[in-house]
Amino acid sequence: MSDKSRKTILTIILIGFLFVLAWLAERCLDEYVMRVVRTGLIYVIAAVGYNLINGIAGQFSLGPNGFMALGGYMVALLMLPLDQKKFVWFLQPLIWPFNAFSFSKPFFPLAVALGGVAGALGALIVGIPSLRLRGDYLAIATFGFSQIIIVLANNLIPITNGALGIKGIPEYADIYRCLGWAIVAVLIISNLANSSYGRAMKSVRDDEVAAEAMGIPVFRIKLLAFVVSGFFAGVAGGLMASLITTVSPNLFSFSMTFNLLIIIVLGGLGSITGSAVTAFAFALISEVLRFVESPMTIGPIHIPGIAGMRMLVFSLLLVLLMIFYRRGLFGKREISWDWVFARFGKITGKGAEAWSHKTERS
After folding, report:
1. DSSP 8-state assignment for residue 292
2. How many helices (H) and strands (E) does the chain have?
3. How many CA atoms lie within 13 A of 48 on its CB side?
4. pLDDT tens for residues 83-94?
5. In what helix (H) or strand (E) does residue 180 lie, and over which residues does it extend?
6. How many domains would you assign to the chain?
7. Which of 28, 23, 74 is nearest to 240 (CA)?
8. Domain membership flag for residue 96
9. pTM, rounded to two decimals
């Protein structure tokens, strides 16, 4: 059996193990904890996609919240029952064709995929003009486009119901669907990063002028990363809308981009493993830190509850990390099967090469 086949089999076994863990969690954990877990998996999808454009391609984008909004509204429009659509759009009627049909539960994965397509199309439209810019100018342009999407969501009442949002979305984003999409995101992004396209993206990140001189189509490579990132942002937005059962412009404000930026910087720009681990940890720690927003009495000192203190803690952590450890927790390192083999070789007293040769002979 070749080394590649062995790694493929191990990956399949690991995926099966993760779904077994999900099955056990569904039966052993309460609904509140399961909601936190599902939120963490959604953050994983959005973060690994965001790291593709910011960390691997090296393009400073501030627009994932806009693409998440496109995915969220797409899923809401497709999945909301017809009776609920008539109830929600009472100011102005919903436009055709969304007022004429509604997807049933078996088609939820298709709706999420179409939400990803909406995010990818939004990224394509935004990326064609903005990716010709570099550095801070690109960040400002993508931020502006994301704000345009939010403004449109507030004002296109026949489509988005404006600031009132869309309520009553069926909660079909269960643990299995969230985990499945998270695995798909990690596998696709990691394989893309390790392909010739991924190497081209890293070349553009390291030296755009040199990459162009070597014949790399810089604009197309950046656009590819941007569109793939937009797709998974749309998927994450669609799952988030189904998890919360409501979607509104406030759900996808710039604070969502700020959360993702904290995640990928803390995990390490360019590290898919770092983004996945930090994204899941971010969701868990956010819930643990709820106590800092509650009133507290420490001896004679009474501290009133202050909303938003959790983000202050994360922001302080980000500042400290940028001062003392700019590479992030993982830097650009990845936990791969080669890494596991190397550690296994150290434990057994044999190198990773010896283990690899053993797999080739078997």
Report:
1. G
2. 16, 4
3. 28
4. 888 888 887 888
5. helix 175-193
6. 1
7. 74
8. yes
9. 0.89
